[in-house]
Amino acid sequence: MAVLNNSEVQFFxxxxxxxxxxxxxxxxIPICLLYLVAIMGNSTILFIIKTESSLHEPMYxxxxxxxxxxxxxxxxxxxxxxxxxxxxxxxxxPNACFAQEFFIHGFTVMESSVLxxxxxxxxxxxxxxxxxxxxxxxxRVAKMGVILATRSLLLVFPFPFTLRRLKYCQKxxxxxxxxxxxxxxxxxxxxxxxxxxxxxxxALCTMLDLAFIVIxxxxxxxxxxxxxxxAERLKALNTCVSHFCAxxxxxxxxxxxxxxxxxxxxxSPLAIILIADIFLLLPPLMxxxxxxxxxQQIREKVLGKLSNICGR
Length: 312
What we know:
CATH architecture: Up-down Bundle
Number of domains: 1
Strand order of the largest sheet: 1-2
Radius of gyration: 21 Å
Order of helices and strands: EEEHHEHHHHHHHHHH
Shape: globular
CATH superfamily: Rhodopsin 7-helix transmembrane proteins
């Protein structure tokens, strides 16, 4: 193991998929395709919303914010994933590791915040459709976007500095293909109590987002059940399907991974690594597909652009 000043480690070691190191180059093919589809899908969503004036509405502005978060997650994890699976390069410097975990956690918090605001958007659209446009003006949506980005930045800003103050003496092998705060701080040989407390606080903020999303959907369901017409009930619920799928896609891997770390007596490293990779790969990949399939306006605009390109 390489060390610095006879005590501190010079680099951390990331891992790929245990037991399948010989097949990493083959595994890199589907991983690269998944990243390519995710980046193209979210870029297409942003392009369609920007160029189509009919989509300049609060719901689609929030969808654009979600796409930005997904692109951020993809680009944050892409460098180390490609280095590991394409070139079998496991080393990462501490500063690069701290920077990567800052961006990964930052965009994770941002996505959680955007999903919360989108649930409030769906509640207002169903509960008070006549006042919806007056309540969510373009200026208010833009301010909400700035607040969400600022909240995400402020919450994770201390992470790199609290990690940098720790000493890393002997252990330098991380548990994933990318750097996470909770994974890195466990390698420290100095007191990491501040990291534990603050990491728990940030995780609690994310879980509070989920709690408020659940409350929003409870209110949505209550409002829908008060509608007399069954056709109108289904129409109202159908506007929430895409967002509900996005919530499941984002939170299920997080909760599963946290439960495995906390409660599993005999944790499978392979299972944990796969779920952790799914956590970063699945939302950016699936969100554009879900919204294109379930949202008629997005689907029609995307198909229209494709037909124009093919017709040239």
